[in-house]
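Entry 12.
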Amino acid sequence: MIEELVSQIETRFAELGEQMTDAEVISDRERYAQVGRDYSQLEPAAKLAVRWRHAQDDAAGAEELLAELGEDAELREELGQARERIEEIEEEIRLAMVERDPNDDKSVIVEIQGGAGGDEAGLWAGDLYRMLVRYAERCGWQSEAMDIGEGKYTFSIKGDGAYSVFKFEGGTHRVQRVPQTESQGRIHTSTATVAVLPEAEDVDIHIDPNDLQIDVYRSSGPGGQSVNTTDSAVRVTHKPTGIIVSMQDEKSQLQNRDKALRVLRARLYERALAEQQAELAADRRSQVGTGDRAEKIRTYNYGERRVTDHRIKFTVHNLDQVLEGELEELTAALQADEKRRRLEAQATA
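Predicted 3D structure (tokens):
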């Protein structure tokens, strides 16, 4: 089984390498971009295949020498080490070839909203917003504010693979700390919810203009001279589902309308995915990142400088760094857990 899988990886990786230098592929921008993505995704498995071949050669060489020279403690140890490496690499290859989430390459729209805890929950939502924007910057992706204010933060993160990272942030984030407004020094527990939506393209979700009710009204709050003087704010209602999206950050009615439609498209896409997942699996919580948002996924404890992800029972003690966007360790642990779950699901399918 593993020999066949390694051969398939080697063959496919060689094909993609040839296509990367094919003039016909290069001239087709869309096809070239897809080939590049496929090449990058397969490259880790291809490197593991090379290591597996080397370990097999080492084991075969040790076996031959033992057959020729007779029992030798050093050769026997070398053979044992080679076989251990083979087993380790085979497990890594299986994990590397686990079927990926089809949305992993997409950009995302993130919605953060204060939950339980009054004003402190709104402040916590702002802290999460800054944390995730900084994380996006560390990943080399671009964030765009879409609707900010009153404890609510809607923004997009553009970049190949953004969803593969940020999907793990979807859920209820709980904080335990002493609020600045607390004179007695008592620890409060507050929450904020984070929704991470894969940004849908026009080809993913078709919206019938006849299904939309678009209302315009005057903006309120910060926004410049146009506030309360022009009807630039936009409210879009999707009549079949009742989903309502409002935007007022931009001075232009057209820009607000465009942003509202992007958020609506993402929400409709997520809704369709949720319905599909409910049909395919009764227990959606078995898939990391697509669980019930009402459940807390992570706790940030200021007193102990601790961050605990409850989905995988994983704790780090670098709260300050995490709040500065250093989420790589948490993400890596969640990605590894997701791969194991998918591998188990494929094995039992």
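Annotation: Residues 222-228, 280-293 have pLDDT under 50 and may be disordered. Residues 29-69 form the longest helix (41 residues).
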